[in-house]
Specification:
This protein has 676 residues and is α+β, with helices and mostly antiparallel strands. It folds into four domains: 301 residues, no CATH class; 121 residues, Immunoglobulin-like; 113 residues, 3-Layer(bab) Sandwich (Phage tail protein beta-alpha-beta fold), CATH 3.55.50.10; 97 residues, 3-Layer(bab) Sandwich (Phage tail protein beta-alpha-beta fold), CATH 3.55.50.30. The chain has 21 helices and 23 strands. The strands form seven sheets. Strands 8, 9, 10, 11, 12 and 13 form a six-stranded antiparallel sheet that branches. It has a five-stranded mixed sheet with strand order 2-3-5-4-6. Strand 4 and strand 5 form a beta hairpin. The longest helix is centred in the first third of the chain and has 33 residues.
Length: 676
């Protein structure tokens, strides 16, 4: 669709240029009417056809577009003052709130244009073939005398290929048709209505059309009429081109002809009008017949023949060159006036975003950009502001545009300017960013250089990464600017680190997936430890290791969370025990979020049962059996995200001092023997 949109934009621009050239041509013909020959009038239409066929318009500083081009307003950026700070500012991406897409009027116009153009081409082709078939059904044999006369005329005009002759009672006027196999069409009574001299002139006129190549040009004009059906000025231009073509053909037939031949030719035209009256109209035929003002103009040109002056020829040639130059050139694109600075950027191979202009007011930020998208079939190109505000803000439809694979230009508007780092980025339909560029003041551009944008180009391979690799990456990339503990418990430290991991996870767009799940398995009996730390710009993984070491615990990275657990004898062996085999569908049922705060084991199991049935495509869920004998008042604190049902059950079992087994049909939780 993107290619069709570009084709439609080019067609509209070409139609507007051709309309201006049509007006210029009509004005020149009216001003120089007395001095223009028929062939020069016809040649003046050449720039119109060239503009309609030019696929690329070269740039020129002398283009007529400079007259209509207004200089772009100076782009400026107005920001709230930024407080000086020597510490890096934590940033969070705005969440993308799905909204209904607005009506794409460009697509509506494009589909309307395609439908009407296709209908005109199909109907025109069908009408042409049916008319030609009707002619062939009523055909008559051509006389030897007629064929001999045609052979003499063809040799006289130096026609390379002799046309097929079709004489039919259904043909209403002499004409020629056919691209691959030219055919001369003659009415059945043609020989009876004209004198030999008049018939020879009419036949010469039709063969001259073949000599001049008017049939391919006529077919091209039929296609252009179907493509530019919406432009009435071009319909007028095509009508005038056909009329001037016939007059130019007359002039070529009568080149250096004496007056008596001109008189005979004028009589032949009048006989065609009075004797032969076409019963239909088809653009696929080129013939001598015309009526009304067009015929009177042709007869007047035949009667008052003036040899064009060489100066007039030079003037017309110059006019054609000037109109062609102004028609096919476009104004050079001025370099954008930049009152902004580009910051850090990251793109996949082949993708790019170029910021051309930025206009900022107290209410909006408007950005004009060019883009090239090659890594995805379609994506959203959006403007957001990376800021300290962790809460989601609604997305205005003007902030993003769905674009297709290829090149294009868009204008984006951010309606909520705020303190932060503005950026233009590509987003998949799932809301994942895979390329973007920051911009703003020099200070903002410099601040963006401290951001880690490697996740953008790595997102294409994220599906193949092991889950533990994802958590390990977050532990390394999440940087906590400042971390202070004063005589804090292990539980307080872990809770604080959970919160900090969510606040400083700038690489994850989806707010529900930010941060790292951290599980604490305290010692039995619990060991009271006071932790005091003062760290700056520390990775999350290092902070967790410091806390674990001070609390004499160990840190383990699992596929769904980071666990902090005891290092006392026996626990090491327990942590390395093989996990029970899990039968389908438990492995495939993923719980998006598990949050237990001071919950009993029974409550936890009821929650998992309910969620497993909701998320199971077959709505069966998993069977969970809790054997009696456990600690009835065991309270569970657990926070997990995107964890399999089997892993969630295992965590609940370990926290409540139960053993988890499976018989292939159900999960069984049995109280530990040392807890009874």
């Amino acid at each position: 669709m993107n290619t069709l949109s570009q084709l439609f934009d080019w067609l509209i621009a070409a139609s507007l240029r051709a309309s201006l050239l049509t007006l210029a041509t009509l004005l020149i013909q009216a001003a120089l009417h007395r001095h223009l020959g028929a062939r020069m009038r016809y040649a003046l239409w050449l720039p119109v056809l060239i503009v309609l066929l030019m696929p690329v318009l070269p740039q020129s500083q002398w283009s007529i577009e400079h007259v209509f081009q207004t200089p772009p307003p100076p782009a400026q950026i107005i920001h709230a003052p930024i407080a000086a700070s020597v510490e890096p500012t934590p940033v969070v991406f705005e969440a993308v709130v799905p909204l209904s897409e607005p009506i794409n009027w460009q697509r509506v116009f494009l589909m309307t244009w395609i439908s009407v153009s296709a209908a005109m081409l199909i109907l025109g082709s069908t009408s042409f073939m049916l008319t030609l078939r009707r002619f062939k059904e009523a055909r008559h044999p051509a006389s030897d005398e007629l064929l001999a006369t045609l052979a003499q005329i063809a040799a006289e005009v130096r026609l390379r290929h002799f046309p097929q002759v079709l004489i039919s009672s259904s043909v209403s006027s002499p004409a020629v048709t056919g691209l691959l196999r030219p055919t001369l069409l003659l009415p059945a009574q043609f020989a009876n209505e004209f004198t030999p001299a008049e018939a020879r002139l009419v036949l010469k006129h039709e063969l001259m059309h073949l000599k001049r190549g008017d049939l391919p040009l006529n077919a091209l004009m039929c296609v252009l009429m179907a493509l530019h059906w919406f432009n009435p000025l071009l319909w007028i231009a095509f009508f005038k081109i056909r009329a001037d073509r016939e007059a130019a053909c007359d002039a070529q037939v009568l080149h250096n002809a004496p007056n008596d031949r001109r008189v005979a030719y004028g009589h032949a035209l009048l006989k065609v009008e009075t004797t032969f009256c076409p019963r239909g109209f088809s653009l696929g035929f080129v013939g001598i017949f015309q009526r009304g003002a067009a015929l009177r103009s042709r007869i007047q040109s035949i009667a008052i023949h003036r040899k064009p002056h060489p100066i007039m020829k030079a003037i017309i040639t110059l006019c054609i060159l000037i109109m062609t130059f102004f028609g096919i050139t476009r104004a050079q694109r001025p370099e954008p006036v930049r009152d902004f600075t580009l910051g850090q950027y990251s793109f996949r191979n082949g993708d790019s975003i170029r910021i051309n202009a930025v206009q900022t007011t107290t209410e909006t930020i408007t950005v004009a950009v060019d883009y090239e998208l090659t890594s995805e079939e379609e994506a959203f190109i959006s403007i957001f502001i990376t800021s300290q505000n962790s809460g989601p803000t609604p997305v205005d439809p003007r902030q993003r545009t769905l674009v297709k694979k290829g090149k294009g230009s868009v204008v984006l508007v951010h309606p909520h300017p705020q303190r932060g780092l503005p950026h233009i980025s590509f987003y998949s339909k799932a809301g994942k960013s895979f390329g973007g560029i920051y911009f703003g003041t020099a200070a903002e551009a410099a601040e963006s250089e401290s951001l880690n944008l490697s996740y953008m180009t790595a997102s294409a391979h994220a599906k193949t990464e092991p889950a533990t690799s994802v958590i390990q990456t977050k532990l390394e990339k999440i940087i906590i600017p400042q971390l202070q503990f004063r005589d804090a418990t292990v539980e307080e430290c872990i809770e604080r680190l959970r919160s900090q991991s969510r606040n400083h996870d700038t690489a994850t767009v989806d707010p529900t997936k930010r941060g790292v799940s951290i599980l604490l398995r305290p010692s039995v009996p619990p060991v009271k430890t006071s932790i005091t730390l003062d760290l700056k710009n520390v990775p999350l993984g290092e902070a967790l290791r410091y806390v674990a070491e001070l609390a004499k615990l160990k840190m383990s990275i699992r596929s769904y969370a980071v666990t902090i657990e005891p290092t006392i004898p026996g626990s090491e062996a327990d942590s390395q025990k093989p996990k029970p085999a899990v039968e389908i569908p438990a492995d495939k049922i993923i719980l998006p979020s598990v949050e237990f705060r001071d919950s009993t084991l029974a409550d936890c199991l009821d929650f998992i049962r309910l969620k497993s049935r909701e998320l199971d495509p077959d709505k069966k869920g998993v069977n969970i059996i809790l054997k009696p004998g456990g600690v009835e008042k065991a309270h569970i604190f657990l926070s997990l995200k995107y964890v399999p049902v089997s892993e969630a059950l295992m965590e609940c079992a370990e926290l409540s001092k139960h053993q988890l087994t499976t018989d292939g049909q159900s999960f069984i939780l049995t109280p530990s023997t040392n807890n009874q």
